[in-house]
Amino acid sequence: MKLKSWLPVLVVLILAVFVAYKSGALGKKTPGPGPAPTGDAATARAELAQLVVHARGSMQGYSRDKFPHWEMISGECDTRETVLKRDGQNVQTDAKCEAVSGSWRSPYDGATWTKPSDVDIDHLVPLGQAWESGAAQWSTDRRKELANDLTHPQLFAVTDNVNQAKGDKAPDEWRPPLESDWCAYAVDWIEVKSYYQLTVIEAEKSALSDMLNRC
Questions:
Q1: How confident is the model at residue 201 (pLDDT cuts 50, 70, 90)?
Q2: Are 79 and 150 in contact (CB under 8 A)?
Q3: pLDDT band at 37 (very low <50, low <70, confident <90, very high)
Q4: Sign, Cα dihedral of 114, 127, 61, 173
């Protein structure tokens, strides 16, 4: 076959490779899409508009011990082990309900881990952040509810060092490294703050609105 007859095919192939490279299919490994939010963006925007805007309170008096966790959920299984079983694949546990094997995909960065020690259970709205957003005035039972909440999107199995980098930061200070998780993260954050009637600051509200634009 003559070279001229191959030219259209070569042009198509070159264009396909270029598009794949620009989109990230070649040249680098990209994580899969982030998780679907438990709610929807329209509801989240409505709830965000209703959140009380108030300056953050002081961290004075804060202690994680004032948010009792982890509580026993069933038998020997506490909240942490329950989340590990819920969020993992093929999770095997010992007689004390402690995870000994399995795999976990962290929604914040898309990384997958096979050692339980590489995974932390993150409080989506961090306990310290909740404290300065209104939880300082709560009863111990109410703080315990937030710290062990399996009903609302408050607890997730995530990469340990990513969780440590997040600390007690709100979305105006920290966002998940995986941008495809921003929509779910914002929707879930708003749902938790709305349910517990926690306050936000203007910068936090603006950050959440921007993240909802990824939905």
A1: very high
A2: yes
A3: low
A4: positive
- What contacts 6, CB < 8 A, 6 or more positions away? none
What confidence tens digit (pLDDT) does each residue in 71-116 have? 999 999 999 999 999 999 999 999 999 999 999 999 999 999 999 9
Q: What is the dihedral sign for C-alpha 158, 160, 162, 168?
A: positive
Q: Mind listing the pLDDT tens digit for each residue in 54-68?
A: 999 999 999 999 999
CA distance 201 to 56: 7
- What is the per-residue DSSP string for the chain? --HHHHHHHHHHHHHHHHHHHHHTSSSS----PPPPPSS-HHHHHHHHHHSPB------TT--GGGS--PPEEETTEEHHHHHHHHHEEEEEE-TTS-EEEEEEE-TTT--EES-GGGEEEEESS-HHHHHTTTGGGS-HHHHHHHHT-SSSTTEEEEEHHHHHHHTT--TTT---SSGGGHHHHHHHHHHHHHHHT--B-HHHHHHHHHHHTT-
Is the pLDDT confidence value at 5 over 60?
A: no
Average pLDDT estimate for 115-141: 98
Please, how many CA atoms are within 13 Å of residue 75, restricted to the half-sphere of its CB? Answer: 10
How would you label 157-196 residue by residue, b for 16+ Cβ within 10 Å and e otherwise?
bbbbebbeebebebbbebbbbbebbbbbbbbbbbbbbbeb
